[in-house]
From TrEMBL:
This is Riboflavin kinase. Its EC number is 2.7.1.26. Its cofactor is Zn(2+); Mg(2+). It comes from Aspergillus candidus. Residues 18-176 form the Riboflavin kinase domain.
Length: 208
């Protein structure tokens, strides 16, 4: 069960990702179990889990990071010249379909940090999560930058949805820090002042 205490607003060291992060995963967006949107109202893009074999010790749980979609197949709000890098919250867990033997990767993509967050609580109505047009089959690249929390059992679907809403906000606040936001801003001359390692990661993210 979830410990009954307030949640930290950020996760991971302020200075930036520390080993084993960033963790790179990629693949085409595949069909999941159809649970994300239908049952919880949270669409999660699934990619094949093969890449996880490189990280056998990776804990199951909720993580944050950045993603890009192949701009030849998906243009974010009409931007189509180069890939847009967006904040993401993701869960790595066991796939109940395969008798809990296989991990699965479920990625929820959020709006840019400069855009309003639908999960920043403004009233007490139902939570709405960010929804894009479907992009099944589109190549996706993901850099995991930090760990948020383990998976818990919940007393209700509402309690789970509320925890995921907070995960989204923790991810956004965590990514706003200078040691992380440099992974999101991949535009034009933004390479200035960014270390060579970060530049390499950014190139990997966006060069499809
Ligand atoms: P599935 O079980 O097939 O993964 P979901 O209900 O989890 O179905 O919906 C995921 C699909 O929704 C993604 O593959 C993608 O095409 C689309 N989608 C729309 N908005 C988002 C978003 N914000 N984050 C992730 N996927 C999204
Ligand atoms: Mg899904």
């Amino acid at each position: 069960m979830r410990p009954d205490r307030p949640r930290d607003p950020v996760a991971g060291p302020d200075s930036g990702p520390e080993a084993p992060y960033p963790i790179q995963l990629s693949g085409p967006v595949i069909k999941g179990f159809g649970r994300g949107s239908k049952e919880l109202g949270i669409p999660t893009a699934n990619i094949p889990a093969d890449g996880l074999s490189e990280y056998p010790d990776l804990d199951v749980g909720v993580y944050y990071g950045v993603v890009a979609l192949d701009p030849r197949q998906f243009s974010y709000e009409g931007e189509n010249a180069s890939a847009t890098v967006l904040p993401a919250v993701l869960s790595i867990g066991y796939n109940p379909f395969y008798k809990n033997k296989m991990k699965s990767i479920e990625i929820h993509i959020m709006p840019r940090l400069t855009e309003p967050s639908p999960t920043a609580q403004v009233d007490s109505g139902p939570t709405h999560f960010h929804k894009l047009p479907d992009f099944y089959g589109t190549p996706l690249r993901l850099l995991i930058l930090g760990y948020i929390r383990p998976e818990y059992d919940y007393v209700s679907v509402e309690a789970l949805v509320e925890d995921i809403r907070v995960d989204c906000e923790v991810a956004r606040q965590s990514l706003r820090r200078p040691g992380y936001v440099c992974y999101l801003n991949v535009d034009a001359d933004a390479d200035e002042g960014v270390g060579e390692k970060v530049q390499r990661w950014r190139r990997w993210l966006t060069e499809f």
